[in-house]
């Protein structure tokens, strides 16, 4: 099983960016923990972060087997601010038709009203938010369980 983890804008600043909201874990620490968990589950994991919408769209298309890349079986995505604004990321996810789980470190529903709306949630297998880095672990477990049950 091959999975892609996508991290959107400003997540490269985790650990230093608003630690009261996002915690003290760095993105590298989150990725390392996910890779360890994936290995224990027997899953191949690729992590990718970009502050650029087009780079995220390109990586989603590659996960669908475009541009000679091996196809992924599913995606964990923390689109960050693009969750609320990016029709392009939504369209890319729909185009590749891979199951995906939307992930957020903070509880987006307990924040500013503009963060309550997700352009991805209605097509996601699930949305996990508010548990800090544990949100990623829960999302990975849920996606792997779904894919194994569907196999």
UniProtKB/TrEMBL annotation:
Residues engaged in binding substrate: 78, 84, 91, 105-106, 115
Domain of life: Bacteria
Site (Transition state stabilizer) location in chain: 17
SUPFAM superfamilies from the UniProt entry: Type II 3-dehydroquinate dehydratase
Keyword Thylakoid appears in the UniProt entry: no
EC number: 4.2.1.10
GO terms for MF: 3-dehydroquinate dehydratase activity
Biological pathway: Metabolic intermediate biosynthesis; chorismate biosynthesis; chorismate from D-erythrose 4-phosphate and phosphoenolpyruvate: step 3/7
InterPro entries recorded: DHquinase_II, DHquinase_II_CS, DHquinase_II_sf
Keywords: Amino-acid biosynthesis, Aromatic amino acid biosynthesis, Lyase
Catalytic activity: 3-dehydroquinate = 3-dehydroshikimate + H2O
Residues annotated as the enzyme's active site: 22, 104
Top EC class of this enzyme: lyase
Function: Catalyzes a trans-dehydration via an enolate intermediate.
HAMAP family xrefs: AroQ (MF_00169)
Protein family per UniProt: Belongs to the type-II 3-dehydroquinase family.
Subunit record text: Homododecamer.
NCBIfam families: aroQ (TIGR01088), PRK05395.1-1 (NF003804), PRK05395.1-2 (NF003805), PRK05395.1-3 (NF003806), PRK05395.1-4 (NF003807)
Protein name (Swiss-Prot/TrEMBL): 3-dehydroquinate dehydratase
Origin species: Cyanobium gracile (strain ATCC 27147 / PCC 6307)
């Amino acid at each position: 099983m091959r999975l892609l983890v996508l991290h959107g804008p400003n997540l490269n600043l985790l650990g230093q960016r608003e630690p009261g909201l996002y915690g003290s874990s760095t993105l590298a620490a989150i990725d390392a923990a996910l890779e360890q968990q994936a290995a224990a589950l027997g899953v191949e994991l690729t992590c990718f972060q970009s502050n650029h919408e087009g780079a995220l769209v390109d990586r989603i298309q590659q996960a669908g087997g475009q541009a000679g890349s091996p196809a992924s079986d599913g995606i964990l995505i923390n689109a960050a601010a693009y969750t609320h604004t990016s029709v392009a990321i939504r369209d890319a996810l729909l185009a590749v038709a891979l199951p995906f789980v939307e992930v957020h470190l903070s509880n987006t529903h307990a924040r500013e009203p503009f963060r309550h709306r997700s352009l991805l949630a209605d097509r996601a297998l699930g949305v996990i938010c508010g548990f800090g880095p544990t949100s990623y672990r829960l999302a990975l477990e849920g996606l792997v369980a779904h894919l194994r049950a569907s196999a």
